[in-house]
């Protein structure tokens, strides 16, 4: 009887052993582990009638085969969903909302690995600036060069901690503070996908107010979309499925596994 090939070691076990690879892809044991460690703070029921806008980046926009990694297509699209909710909560005007959606949907597209990868925000910002017309057209966005520049600034700063800003970065931040703060917040909320609980969202590090219910939304968007992808759905179908579960227009929806 032929022997079975060895099963890959789950991300959560690799994280515990402090030997995570450069490229990290969600696996079923890790997603199950995440579901079993659901924080008490994100338990409960939330009713949200309006479905946020979803922008799904193209796989060819990602560097180094990162499209299916934990910083790939689904992460960027979920950050876009969360950013859209934050834009509504903070009453951004239509142009700012479009710019925030754009920034969120491509903020990690030029990552080279799934570790810290310093400078990936700046690389993505430069890439967006060079491909502004093609990217906005692909998303069906009508944005002025000024608002695309603001989105690029937010992207360039999203991976830099506020205390670590250089003088140049502080000057750039002042030109796009609102978009930067909200992009950082949306990105933070999708950290429940990471295989160590101490890496999960810490909203005390943010400069904007995040409603308590958004943590529940973020957890379940991640859980349902990642499970659907593992079950064989495409990225778009997995994300659409998760959005349909979490944002139900007619009745209260239980958020949780």
From TrEMBL:
Domain of life: Bacteria
Name of this protein: HD domain-containing protein
Species: Actinoallomurus spadix
């Amino acid at each position: 009887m032929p022997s079975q090939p060895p099963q890959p070691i789950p991300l959560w076990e690799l994280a515990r052993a402090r030997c995570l690879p450069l490229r990290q892809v969600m696996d079923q044991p890790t997603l199950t582990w995440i579901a079993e460690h659901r924080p008490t703070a994100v338990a409960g029921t939330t009713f949200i009638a309006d479905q946020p806008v979803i922008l799904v980046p193209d796989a060819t926009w990602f560097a180094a085969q990162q499209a299916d990694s934990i910083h790939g297509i689904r992460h960027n699209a979920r950050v876009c969903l969360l950013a859209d909710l934050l834009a509504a909560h903070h009453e951004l005007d239509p142009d700012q909302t479009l710019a925030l959606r754009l920034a969120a949907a491509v903020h990690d597209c030029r990552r080279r690995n799934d570790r810290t990868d310093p400078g990936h925000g700046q690389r993505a910002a430069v890439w967006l600036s060079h491909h502004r017309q093609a990217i906005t057209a692909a998303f069906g966005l009508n944005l002025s060069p000024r608002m695309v520049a603001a989105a690029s600034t937010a992207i360039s700063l999203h991976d830099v901690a506020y205390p670590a800003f250089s003088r140049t970065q502080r000057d750039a931040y002042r030109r796009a503070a609102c978009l930067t703060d909200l992009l950082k917040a949306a990105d933070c909320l999708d950290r429940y996908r990471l295989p160590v609980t101490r890496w999960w969202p810490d909203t005390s590090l943010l400069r904007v107010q995040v409603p308590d219910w958004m943590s529940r939304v973020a957890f379940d968007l991640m859980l349902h979309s990642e499970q659907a992808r593992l079950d064989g759905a495409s990225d778009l179908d997995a994300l659409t499925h998760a959005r349909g579960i979490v944002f139900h227009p007619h009745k209260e929806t239980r958020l949780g596994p």
